[in-house]
């Protein structure tokens, strides 16, 4: 079945699924200007580090497709692009994907302006606009492959951490083990390894792919029936009810598909409930064995269920990974990392290389977004009728705390790299070295040279990175000129 599309895009038209209304309502918002994109991001109708960058980039692409720059000269188009991107940068500060995308888009526009000097051809406003639009569209398209790779590398990394079972497997318990026998080999599976269970936090499950012409989405349990757009789309994001994608959630999907997964746990993720509203919905929709817990239950879960369920890892996404591996992610991530350490559970960050910020040395330099007080003291949800049924057609906002109490609401926290075992990127895994350090030099060498070494340092870093792709071509690195 085709899944839900979080972002629907064709050149000149951008629609964004309002994630605040999920899982009960599916409403698309037409985003036609940078102001609308800014508001959509700020209000968290679209959220998650890569999606924020994509919506910002594409909103300006829509403006340019409609020639809103009103420019007569190519320099004016570039100046318009720069000004609009600077404006969008203020929408949410913590996720680095947005600033990386902005750097890339600005540099591509500048390159287009100066292209005439090398090609001898006159460059027009239309060329600069087109160059911007194509770059923005490539950011969207590249993210698809990125997510799939993270899922595969992460699942393989976790599988390799499992130790063989010392005593023979009780055959009645067969379903709790996975086989390492290569596909197609004769004979019974060896069943030496337990399937593993994982916990994830927040929501990391959106994904990007080439669009379908029509999507029908039906879930009887939720009494939801949706008929999505019949317009053939250039590129779309599919999410929140589809298969095989996302970053941390992508790894869970891959584990499930590879038959390594026993159970996934997801936290509610207060105060905005991305876990209960979005991740729980995705897991349930895809019938991945899963259980929702409140954030405060993680310690009890590890202490009581670690052995029974073989809870092997906490897997989270990232909004910004500093040069030393310190990672900013949704508030509550740090607490989970401390708990994981205490219980001997791996702590894994799943992040595209666009989320690595080499110019920020360590986590204490990361700016953390503080959000509104009423995110803690009030909540919106669907109406529960007197007979216990849920009326998804109506929602209400209710107060859940004293409305005069002072509130602290940082949206993210920083997990020190000492608590992180592995950072899984689309280029492979980066492990904490025996000295307790992370090194990204081998995985993003060009960016390392540009941002860290400035071309003079010949030091070897002893990194335990395993780069899987020799080339750095693609959106993430095109900015490294
Ligand atoms: O406030 P949000 O919902 O934008 O926070 C999202 C997260 O913290 C995610 O874990 C992170 O952006 C990674 S999404 C692949």
UniProtKB/TrEMBL annotation:
The keyword Amino-acid biosynthesis applies. PANTHER family: METHYLTHIORIBOSE-1-PHOSPHATE ISOMERASE. It holds the Pfam family IF-2B. It catalyses: 5-(methylsulfanyl)-alpha-D-ribose 1-phosphate = 5-(methylsulfanyl)-D-ribulose 1-phosphate. GO terms for molecular function: S-methyl-5-thioribose-1-phosphate isomerase activity. It comes from Lachnellula cervina. Pathway: Amino-acid biosynthesis; L-methionine biosynthesis via salvage pathway; L-methionine from S-methyl-5-thio-alpha-D-ribose 1-phosphate: step 1/6. Its EC number is 5.3.1.23. Residues 453-466 have a biased composition (Polar residues). The active site is at 319 (proton donor). This is Methylthioribose-1-phosphate isomerase. The record marks 202 as: Transition state stabilizer. Residues 449-481 are annotated as: Disordered. Keywords: Amino-acid biosynthesis, Cytoplasm, Isomerase, Methionine biosynthesis, Nucleus. It is an enzyme of class 5 (isomerase). SUPFAM superfamilies: NagB/RpiA/CoA transferase-like (SSF100950). One of its GO terms (biological process) is L-methionine salvage from methylthioadenosine.
